[in-house]
Each structure stands twice: as C-alpha cells, then as structure tokens.
Amino acid sequence: MKVAEIQKSIIDQIRTLEDPQLLKAIQSLIAASKTEEKYQLNEEQKKSVEISRKQIENGEYKDQKEFMTEVRSWLKEK
Q: Which domain of life is it from (predicted)?
C-alpha cells in the first residue's frame, strides 16, 4: 500500500470516529511523531542508559519469561 493510500484510509476512518478520547489519543500520537527531540535526558540518565546498554552487550539481562517466573515465585513467598 502506498503512503497516499494509507493516508486516505486513515482519514476516512478518523472521519467516522465519535469518541473524543480516541481522537485525542490519535492527535497525541501525531503530535509526538512530529516532535524533533523525543526525550531530553540529563547526564545521570544518559549514564544509566549507557550502563544498561553495556549490560545487555555482556548478556547481563533477563528476558521477560525468566523475569515473570521470578516474580511469580517471589509473590508466592509473600
């Protein structure tokens, strides 16, 4: 599907919407996509992201399945 076709399809669908919350959510998504700078990080946050990236590179992370197993086990102990 070409961009113009997608745009037309979206516009057609939006025209039929009557839910103000959904329309506001769509408006927010569009506004966010136009923002040049998505996030402003301070130095501490940047360092934290860098540390996290290095941990991932070194395999020092848990996938969601492993994490959820640990959480369920922990909750059973409580």
A: Bacteria
- What is the pLDDT at residue 33? 83
Residue matched to tokens 């991932």: 56
- In angstroms, what is the C-alpha Rg of the chain? 21
Q: Are 55 and 61 spatial neighbours (Cβ–Cβ below 8 Å)?
A: yes
Q: Is the pTM of this model over 0.70?
A: no
In terms of phi and psi (left: phi > 0; alpha: psi -120 to 50; beta: otherwise), the region of 59 is left
Rounded Cα–Cα distance for residues 52 and 55 (Å): 5
DSSP the chain: --HHHHHHHHHHHHHH---HHHHHHHHHHHHHHH-S-S----HHHHHHHHHHHHHHHTT----HHHHHHHHHHHHHH-
